[in-house]
Write a structure and sequence with these properties.
about 230 residues, globular, about 20% strand, seven-stranded mixed β-sheet, alpha/beta, Rossmann fold, binds S-adenosylmethionine, 9 helices, 7 strands, about 45% helix
């Protein structure tokens, strides 16, 4: 398999040195919005006619969203997949009931039609979206829901100024939080470079056969959630 260039970013950004502080940093770096965005993802998963019994979270990291989904119902099993083993170890410490898989989202080690829903938060900028959409199609059951969430570059020039200032502050905070310095140094550039991800995702979802693709922007255009259904 040819590795997408996002793989190198993911390897540099997430490792043993920053797994322990990830949960606090994601809250701080998103000014508390992370919880609200993840709540929206959980709502989309919960909107279907049936309670999903098997959910796959791609790039689950330390399991913040997986644990929210796990609490949806006693009947729900969440499978949390991530590239970074040290993040999964953290997830295991916090949520011993989650099923953890150390793998890449581009090659899913599951049989066809295994999951009722597939979700991801902050993955789109690291992947070949078309490959992940196709793999997700394969392992998703009919009538299953897919949800992608990630940052977006704001369109409004005023918001853009605030956004750039926010990332300047994050870069400065990397002087104190040294384990996060490489991430804060490059994250804004990666977000602006991969900004077409919602449109690209919708295009690949349609091309693969998904129906009702939907994109909703959040928090002044700094984040988006794209969802669709496998008919
Ligand atoms: C910002 S963290 C997000 C973690 C979690 N989704 C959350 O919202 O808290 C990004 C995660 O994506 C994972 N990742 C990046 N590329 C990946 C890939 N190709 N396959 C699986 N995981 C990947 C990283 O290992 C990292 O844990």
């Amino acid at each position: 398999m040819i590795l997408h260039e996002g793989y190198n970013y993911a390897r540099k950004f997430f490792n043993a040195s920053n797994a322990a502080t990830y949960d606090s940093v994601v809250c701080f770096a998103t000014l508390g919005r992370d919880k609200m965005w993840k709540t929206q993802i959980a709502k989309i998963v919960d909107e279907g006619e049936f309670i999903p019994t098997t959910i796959l979270e791609l790039a689950a990291g330390t399991g913040i969203l997986s644990s929210m989904l796990d609490q949806m119902s006693d009947k729900t099993t969440v499978h949390s997949l991530d590239l970074t083993l040290d993040y999964l170890k953290k997830a295991r410490e916090k949520h011993p009931t989650l099923s953890l898989i150390n793998s890449t989202a581009e090659l899913l080690p599951f049989r066809a039609e295994t999951f009722d829903s597939i979700v991801s938060s902050y993955l789109a900028k690291y992947i070949d979206i078309e490959t992940v959409v196709q793999e997700s199609w394969r392992v998703l059951k009919h009538d299953g829901v897919i949800v992608f969430h990630d940052f977006t570059f704001p369109k409004n020039p005023m918001i853009e100024k605030f956004w750039k200032f926010h990332f300047l502050l994050l870069r400065l905070s990397g002087k104190l939080l040294k384990e996060w310095a490489p991430t804060f140094e490059r994250l804004d550039k990666l977000i602006s470079k991969t900004n077409p991800w919602p449109g690209d995702t919708i295009r690949y979802l349609r091309k693969t056969g998904f129906v009702k693709p939907f994109c909703k922007c959040h928090t002044l255009g700094t984040s988006a959630i794209v969802s669709a259904r496998k008919p």
